[in-house]
Amino acid sequence: MTTYRVAPPVNNQELNALFAIAWPHHQWYDFTPVLSRSLSFVCAYEANQLVGFVNLAWDGGIHTFILDTTVHPDVRRQGIGLNLVKQAVAVAQEAGIKWVHVDYEPHLETFYRQCGFRHSAAGVMALR
After folding, report:
1. Rounded Cα distance, 128 and 126, in Å
2. Domain range enclosing 35
3. Could you tell me if 71 and 44 are in contact, meaning their C-beta atoms sit under 8 angstroms apart?
């Protein structure tokens, strides 16, 4: 059974292990500064093992941004990603946030539509 926790104590070792198995080009990263500036984040666990994560980045005002939606490959397509995003959106709503943004690659449009997002025009600039 999958359990979801909002802003649980999670460490770099757990997050990097999840990201390394979920993202082929992941390199070790210190999540501490990012999470300390986020509105919140949601983690999914199975038998106390971290199997999912989503970050709710925040501009300090009325906008939040869904980032780093990640699910362990062994448990994908079971609704974990959808539940992570929906819980993050609920946290934003409870905090009085007016807009939740998400950027995604075209192959993820169906997933984010299922989460309740609608397509919008946006711009992005790669700096590296």
Report:
1. 6
2. 2-114
3. yes
